[in-house]
Amino acid sequence: xxxxxxxxxxxxxxxxxxxxxxxxxxxxxxxxxxxxxxxxxxxxxxxxxxxxxxxxxxxxxxxxxxxxxxxxxxxxxxxxxxxxxxxxxxxxxxxxxxxxxxxxxxxxxxxxxxxxxxxxxxxxxxxxxxxxxxxxxxxxxxxxxxxxxxxxxxxxxxxxxxxxxxxxxxxxxxxxxxxxxxxxxxxxxxxxxxxxxxxxxxxxxxxxxxxxxxxxxxxxxxxxxxxxxxxxxxxxxxxxxxxxxxxxxxxxxxxxxxxxxxxxxxxxxxxxxxxxxxxxxxxxxxxxxxxxxxxxxxxxxxxxxxxxxxxxxxxxxxxxxxxxxxxxxxxxxxxxxxxxxxxxxxxxxxxxxxxxxxxxxxxxxxxxxxxxxxxxxxxxxxxxxxxxxxxxxxxxxxxxxxxxxxxxxxxxxxxxxxxxxxxxxxxxxxxxxxxxxxxxxxxxxxxxxxxxxxxxxxxxxxxxxxxxxxxxxxxxxxxxxxxxxxxxxxxxxxxxxxxxxxxxxxxxxxxxxxxxxxxxxxxxxxxxxxxxxxxxxxxxxxxxxxxxxxxxxxxxxxxxxxxx
Length: 564
Description:
Elements: E1 2-3, E2 44-48, H1 64-73, E3 78-80, E4 91-93, E5 101-103, E6 108-112, H2 127-135, H3 148-152, H4 162-165, E7 171-175, E8 178-182, H5 190-193, H6 211-214, E9 222-228, E10 232-237, E11 255-259, H7 264-273, E12 281-282, H8 297-300, E13 303-307, E14 311-316, H9 326-335, H10 338-345, E15 351-353, H11 380-389, E16 396-403, H12 406-419, E17 424-431, H13 436-440, E18 449-454, H14 465-469, H15 488-498, H16 503-518, E19 523-534, E20 539-540, E21 558-559
Parallel strand pairs: 2-11, 2-12, 16-17, 16-18
Antiparallel strand pairs: 3-4, 5-6, 6-8, 7-8, 9-10, 10-11, 13-19, 14-18, 14-19, 15-19, 20-21
């Protein structure tokens, strides 16, 4: 995810998803209670992870894993539900009493806060705290997470967040319970936008610099007791959270303990063995080498599987020569052998071949293949013809960014080998996982191409194509448009769809836009990855959530026996 929707170190530390995902009915566990039945109250859930979280500050982090984590310590005006399948991606009230009331033709939205909501300090959460928290998204240094607040809410062109520019006049707080948002233009789905992490309340004046990255101010059922970045994180109960105000979070465990920096193979070994406290553990999707080992009846009882709801792709930087030539980008699309890329992640058990930008789980998505080849193995002849027309029959070289994870590096090698017969030299640049999305999301640090992924932030096509390909949203930091595509026709179509009042019609139009964009070949769709997770024998309430890269929904998981 990223981000963001840009993919990162979470529970699904091996996942590609940049941001949240949605609509994956196949991702549900066998029953809503998950392995072990309903969760008991008490105990500590252990979480084993390869990489640490990108950011604990909610306006900085924006990937499927950290978005999932945020719901344990933070609340937003609305949120996604807590259930497997489509029920989990429904937008429901959280801090607010409802999903918002539009007026002025959809340009103004009003929310009323529930009674009894508070920070971990005991201070009540007010509309001023919501306004301050949202305003932080405009800060040029820290506002690198979810882009929707800045894109949709009206703001002065010179506004740079509350620490530099003071209060944002387009968010009004007529009283302590009411917050009013003035939008740039009507937005029918704004009730989903306010479920984003940028709508976490922050006490007025708090959170400057990196302070929330080290010590968050909790509004959810848990608070941070100890944090060693890249090593460990401990959550304990927030006694100021009132369950009567929260219909989403079960909060059964007394706490969570993350252990970061573990080798992926080590995680697999520990989860399969399930010894000691690992019986109380969850982790991310298993590695390809371990797939055959989890087919026993005993382990199948502890296994969850389904589509992750995201698209893994190679972004092509259209501002870099020779990738600024359409024929070159089209040639690369024809040439990539997606079968070998899939083999690199573990074969058909762990991924389907991708042909379009939007994954099969997105409403309105069209099933098509603009650059077909036999069995997805690549069409080198079609690629050679295009390269000859571009004057590059003798090839060229480019740099491909990827994360410092074995699976990601194996995918990069598969692409490198697929393009070698065309005399294209691919130089693989490996970037640390914890900073990967921040680096590739900074255009000045971007290279020619990058392996990444995207997941929808809520069940709408609006959260897939505009963040990735609206050229007017290219930013110096936190940039999701890795191709840096700025096509007037694409931008105009995005505006046309955004003006639609019928969400279903808009999603169908996004399906058509997907095809329009792929004619420009700003990316190579690679895979629709699947999730295969083994949980500890004492884990209960575990199911895969379609909104968080297909990962286990952290707000519902717990232990069968809290005394173990």
